[in-house]
Each structure stands twice: as structure tokens, then as C-alpha cells.
Amino acid sequence: MANPRGGGGARHLPLRLRRLLRSPISRCAGVLAAFAALLLVLSLRQVDRVALPGHGHDPSPAPSEQLWGSNGDGSHACVTPTSRYMAPKESERYMTVRSNGGLNQMRTGICDMVAVARLVNATLVIPQLDKRSFWQDTSTFKDIFNEPHFIKALEGDVHTVSDLPQSLQSVPRARKHFTSWSGASYYDEVKQLWKDHKVVHIPKSDSRLANNGLPMDIQRLRCRCLYQALHFSDPIENLGKKLLERLRSRGKFIALHLRYEKDMLAFTGCTYGLSESEADELRIMRERTSHWKLKDINSTEQRSEGNCPLTPEEVGIFLRAMGYPKSTWIYLAAGEIYGGDKYVSKLRSYFPNLVSKEVLATKEELDKFNNHASQVAALDYIVSVESDVFVPSHSGNMARAVEGHRRFLGHRKTVTPDRRGLVELFDLLQKGELMEGPKFSSLVTEMHKNRQGSPRKRNGSLPGSKGRARLRTEESFYENPFPECICLTGKH
């Protein structure tokens, strides 16, 4: 790569990167402490003589514990009901639900509905799954989930039935869109719906409950539902276990949720690195998708704000900078990657041991899941939760759900890329003002030292947000169920 243009050196780096350059980690990168700042400025003008991907040897590997160690610090799940929690009361109220969205949007929505049924003392009818969204999946509840286990596991919390009693099949139903991010007091008022109707239908299930401020027993019920009751069906669980066995026979592995898929790129308006024709194709898709409200998107601004998924090549640069050697096994948890091998090959040049379910499973094993996007996504979910390290290239329902589950299971290592910060570094690489090597690696690792899934309380709303809009900015309960469902001391 070329030397930096002009004589500005580190003075022209973004503020957040200048701070990293002043950190102890960077000062230790081969320079004397007394002259660290000066030498770092000067060294940014020099070309690092490092092996490029696909050539030579790996950089010095990071310690194994740093790469693979858990962040649990003694944390454990704690979802036992409090002493005030009572068995569900007999009720003639029934609640039917249509769960909307993809797999993980439906999963968390179903558990919201379980908690709502408890709050209003209604019998929950097994939800109908979304067959009309982008995924166009005709799967029923029992195709994806273990229905008998779900009903049995929740019998101490909520009455659940497979279908309405015959006597209620044709009765008029009230139809109610529950307000998003609502608290317990809202559902006390909602109970009035059952005064005039025995059955109330809920057409949307996602985000019907607040993230914070709910009774402890309701929060723990949401966790029991998602992590203990809502198991996948036997065919999905069985193949998921086989994939894990085949991966583990190779050693430790990273599950990479690579959101470099056509729908994600079109929705976010992210076209960096794509050809003009590919960018046009995504723009047309966005314009033709009626429920995507934002049509005109500045791709450059999106990327600089950290709103774009990392490209496959950027993921390769990132993981190598974090210290993972070229020999690392990576499981690609994703749908069809936009551009196919044209872009995936750039990640493979960094990590040749790149596999997916299509590589690990036989054609016969996968045939039964063909044309069922949610069932296929469930396989990726199983592998991602059980992986040694999970890395999402973009936030989303899958990334949040997997991160929350891994926190629940002992804060397994989840490395969440700082996309905004990384874009600044990638742009410096592109300009030749920074090179891949020890200094670049120290910047990346310092940037991510607190982004690896260690225990922390759930984040509240963003500063400046007001009214109900602030609730949208809170961290999802299912992304981080601490402190309600995770304890740091004592035993479960």
C-alpha cells in the first residue's frame, strides 16, 4: 500500500482514533514509552512489512484465552419465579395470535404473547406463524417448534392449547393491535376487551411489551419461554446437533452472522464496494417494497454512521486484526450472500476454512428444509448459540437474539464490531494512511475490548429521546436479559 499523502500524519486522524493511538496498548506496540506519541506519528508514514492475506505466515497469534475465553465471570441463569408467583387461574378468556416477521422476530413475539396472556389471565392458542412476509415460509408452529414441549413447559405459567374449543370456533372475535412497548398497567386496562368477547385476536406479536419496568416474574417468564419452552422441532434440533458435531471435530470455531444479503443491503441502502448495476438493482428493490418507507438513502452517509453491514472483505480484515489466525474455522450463518463467491472469496482469502450448512450437511439432510426459510434460519441459530465465538456483521433480530441467548448461557464470547469506528480505520487503509499490521491490530483490539459480551446491565433509552419514542431506543430485553434473568453470585 502507498505511503500517506501529505505531511499531516496522525494529526488528521479522527478524534476517537487519536485517542486510541494515545492508549497504553498502542504505546507498547514496539516503541519506547517515553517517545510513544512521536514515534507513532512518524510510523504512520511508513509501510508495515506484513504478510497480506493469502501470502506468507499469520501475524503473531493472540493468546488462546483472549481469542476464545468466556466472559461469564460467574454469571448464571436465574429464572425461578418469586415466592409471590401463583399457578395460572382457570379462565374462559382466549387469545389468538398471528406472529409476524422472520424466525427471531416471531420467537420473541411469541414469548411476549405468553407474558401478555399471563397478565390478562387468558388462555393462549398456539400462534399462527407469518406466511406473508419477505420470507414467504409456509411452516406451521409445529414445523419449527416442539409444540408438546412448549405447552408442557408453560403449564405452571399460562394455559396453552393447540386450537380453540369447537364451541368457540365460529364466535365473533375482537381484533386488537396492542400498543408497542407497553407496561403491566396497559394490560390491566386491556382486560376489559374480554367483557364482551370470549376470544380476542392479536394480528401482530412483536414488541408488545416494554423492555424495562415490568414485574420481575413477568420478565423471568419471558426468559423461561424463550430459553426453556420454545425449543425447535426434533428434525431441526437433530440436524443442528449434527452440524455442531462436524464443526467441533475440526476444533474451535467462529459463527459469523454475515448480513450481506440482498434484502439487507437494499433495506439499508448500503452499496459500498458494489458495481453500479448492483447498486441500481438494490435501489429498485427498495423502491418497489411498499412497507419500506425510506426510499432515497445516501449510502456514503449510512456507511460512515455505522449503519451498513460489514462487507465480507471487511470482516476478514477485522477478524485477522483481532488476532484470529488464518487457520480458524468459520461457520457462515447467513442466507444467500449478495454477489455470491465474487465477494465471499475475499473473506475466504483471509480464512480458507470457511464453511456453511450447505458444506457440512448432505443434500438429503437439507432437502426437507428447502423453501422453508425459518427452518433453515433455525439451523444457523443453533450453531450460532453453541459456537465458541459469535460475530454478527450487523445488528438485527438474529444478532440480538443470539447475543441474548449467549448471555443467558454464561456470557459466551460475542464480539460485536464497532462498525462506525471500523469504517474510519478501513478508510485509512484504503487511502494508504494506515497499514494492516501490529499498529492496526492494536487499534482494532483496543476499540473492541469492551464489546465481547461481558456482563453489563441493559442499556436504557438514548439521551435526548422523549415520550414513547424513547422506548424504541432502549436495548432489547431479549438482547440482554440482565439483571432480571441473570445472576452474578450464588447458585440457581
UniProtKB/TrEMBL annotation:
Keywords: Carbohydrate metabolism, Fucose metabolism, Glycoprotein, Glycosyltransferase, Membrane, Signal-anchor, Transferase, Transmembrane, Transmembrane helix
GO CC terms of this entry: cytoplasm; membrane; nucleus
MF annotations from Gene Ontology: glycosyltransferase activity
The family this protein is said to belong to: Belongs to the glycosyltransferase GT106 family.
Gene Ontology biological process terms, A to Z: fucose metabolic process
Official protein name in the record: O-fucosyltransferase family protein
Membrane topology type: Single-pass type II membrane protein
Record keyword Transmembrane helix present: yes
